[in-house]
């Protein structure tokens, strides 16, 4: 495993964990999502979900580009 793969993998994991931890009340972007769901603010839920999705997608794209450049 190269020296750049660990931080990249950790970054990917942190994005996903912040969503899950927030949904269970521990903070992170998931807390905002949970709050919007509880208040039935579906427009806000959609925007937050879309931003999480775009962030994960961008992170995966960057990771793939970095991995390809290294290999």
Largest sheet: none
| Share of β-strand residues | under 5%
What is the end-to-end distance? Answer: 12 Å
Give the CA-based shape. elongated
> Helix- and strand-based class?
mainly alpha
How would you portray this structure in words?
It is a single chain. 82% of the residues lie in helices and 0% in strands. By secondary structure, it is an all-alpha fold. The protein has one domain. The longest helix is centred in the C-terminal third of the chain and has 29 residues, at 42-70. The mean pLDDT is 80.
Report a brief summary of the structure:
82% of the residues lie in helices and 0% in strands. It is mainly α. The protein is elongated.
Key attributes of the depicted protein:
single chain; 71 residues; mainly alpha; 3 helices; 82% helix; elongated; transport
């Amino acid at each position: 495993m190269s020296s750049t793969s660990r931080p990249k993998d950790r970054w990917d994991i942190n994005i996903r964990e912040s969503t899950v931890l927030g949904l269970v009340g521990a903070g992170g972007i998931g807390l905002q999502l949970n709050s919007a769901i509880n208040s039935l603010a579906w427009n806000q839920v959609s925007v937050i979900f879309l931003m999480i999705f775009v962030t994960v997608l961008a992170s995966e794209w960057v990771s793939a580009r970095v991995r390809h450049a290294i290999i």
